[in-house]
């Protein structure tokens, strides 16, 4: 198999979850043949594929998501996706599909999302989407469709709800051009485009339409909006207009035609051309959400005070440097306010009256300070974003009334300290990363009893005692001092970066109440920049009874203690980096038989015996990069029946026969993905250094002579047994077959020569019967009856091969007389003569054979001549013993046999 360096990634955090295959950015030219058939997600984004062939996805029935974005695919064979019966999402954007054929999507009955944007599609077959009966979302944006009738097959789909047609070549979108059998189920439509001049809905084809997006892609142009009947858009609740596509009068006309509008988005409008528009918008009684993205409303009188009905207001990137008092004061029902990425220098004064506000986004502004009055009345606030401002200090009174706050982001400011008496009992996420804080106390976090995630950056951290963290970096969740740690019972995820002076002493837990915090711990990561001496690590792990994920980076100077996981039976993922495993035994992993993921990088591992003995039958993910593995026995991986991902990169492999089994296993196995196996290089021997491991010819290892000797001796034994069997039981049958073949061969030769009959009969006899021939036969047949007989001792041509003389005699005579006795049957040459004569009998279908039996011979002696014997029973044969009393009758019968014309009939009377 070809290995393309694809990597597995888990669909979820669960170590036993299904695996997704990531083959993006690999310069792949065709679908790899080694993709595991049980993969649920396949990412082939940004490769070099030009065509999808039938059978490329054979057997991959479990696939749910397939990403083929940004390739060069110009053609898809019919039925290429027929095996993907459970596929739900297919991404084929940024390719070169100019035509969608009739059976391109055959088999995709469960597909719900299809992206075909940026392909240059010009033609859609009327039956291109006939199999997509479950399709809900289709993006055909940035193609070359020009007529609204091109999308008619899409609108007929029974489940379609979202259709993207952005930046095509439509000059008009008029529903009167659509001929639909029944109204479409479409709910969302994006018809943006530079060529669009008319948007008209004059027929009831979209009774369920709720969302319309219309904008220009690159240029600005006036659009003609024609909706003759407001009832046709009675369900429109969301409208997106961008890039000044309509004049002030045009937008006003549109807004007046919509009676159910609840969400309006205006983007990139030149607001100086729309003075007074905000007042018009605020008069829409159903409007609840207003988005003003990048609308340049600075230095304009902001008249939003009459928008008292709004619950969500988004004014990001609108060049706002001030929101005067009273400009937003009437919005008593506002729940979400987003003014990020503007030029505000202080929290808007009207925020003090937002008693219903739940989400407040002030990111990316120029706020210098927070006052105690800024959030005095926002008691319902749940999320507060203050990222990347210029705040240098936060007093405890700022958040005094925010008892419901769950998220606070103060990252990327200029904070020097953090107040220790801030009380936010429901806060779960706190981010004070990228500030200028150099020292923190545990007391600073005692007011956060519900905290689950804390990002601190790199700070000095001290507790209430001398035991302290010297350095904490990228802390995913809070760390507390030993005396107050019992208050943080929700801690699940902890990442600690230490200096060697600490030795994890700051995590000592000497009291039973302290251990309460670790009972719920599920993920624990310890990192040390220089090797530490974690004497208390085993004690800490013993308190984490439900731990599922453990990572240790550069923690141990020697081997980790063998009993460190005795109290962690639920561990599913373990990672050790830069830890000495050269003397580690299987006892380390025996307490965690349910381990699914194991990573041992830079751990001086030269043998995998300790893993084999650890009985890790549930292991699915194994990473052993940057170790000392030079030889691997392929039987090792039989100990991991569930293994699906194996990474052995950067090991000093030996390219000789000791690795032949492993190399063949890598090439043949279809269950385990060996990541980057095609790039593994040889370290030894010297003459193969830097060559590829998989290019080593393993057949040389198996051809050492033993296999040849085994085959040779086996064949010799079988041949001996077969020869003995044939000689004892099949000798006469084979002899008969051989002579039959010779007769056939020479018969063809004689036919071509058209030999005339020189004799009346050829006499075939054995030398032991020569006296009877001379004494009894010749005087009668030649002397009295005058027949011309051919005798071998008299008429055979000297020097000519015997077999040719026999053939010439038989085919040069009208008849063949066989003088049969027991000696005759045992004679090799007589046997050949009778075989050849009998073949002539079968071949020419003439009565050319006369049998004279000098002795009474039992039928079993004639068994080798079964077919001849069967014919003889129906035709001429003469017995000399039976004619002893009347020899003259015997010779008369011989004369009658020689006189017959030779026509072979089934009813000829035998001369017996």
UniProtKB/TrEMBL annotation:
GO terms of biological process kind:
inflammatory response; innate immune response; toll-like receptor signaling pathway
Coiled-coil positions are none
Question: Which PROSITE patterns does this entry report, sorted A to Z?
Answer: LRR (PS51450), TIR (PS50104)
Subcellular localization is given as: Membrane
Q: According to its record, what are the GO cellular component terms? A: plasma membrane
Q: In which domain of life is the source organism classified?
A: Eukaryota
Q: What is its main location?
A: membrane
Q: Which UniProt keywords apply?
A: Glycoprotein, Immunity, Inflammatory response, Innate immunity, Leucine-rich repeat, Membrane, Receptor, Repeat, Signal, Transmembrane, Transmembrane helix
GO MF terms, alphabetically ordered = signaling receptor activity
How would you describe this protein's topology in the membrane?
Answer: Single-pass type I membrane protein
- Segments forming domain TIR: 757-898
Q: Which Pfam families match?
A: LRR_8, TIR
- Where, by residue number, does the polypeptide cross the bilayer? 707-723
By sequence similarity, the record places it as follows: Belongs to the Toll-like receptor family.
PANTHER family this protein is in?
A: LOW QUALITY PROTEIN: TOLL-LIKE RECEPTOR 13-RELATED, TOLL-LIKE RECEPTOR
Return the protein name.
TIR domain-containing protein
- Source species taxonomy: Eukaryota, Metazoa, Chordata, Craniata, Vertebrata
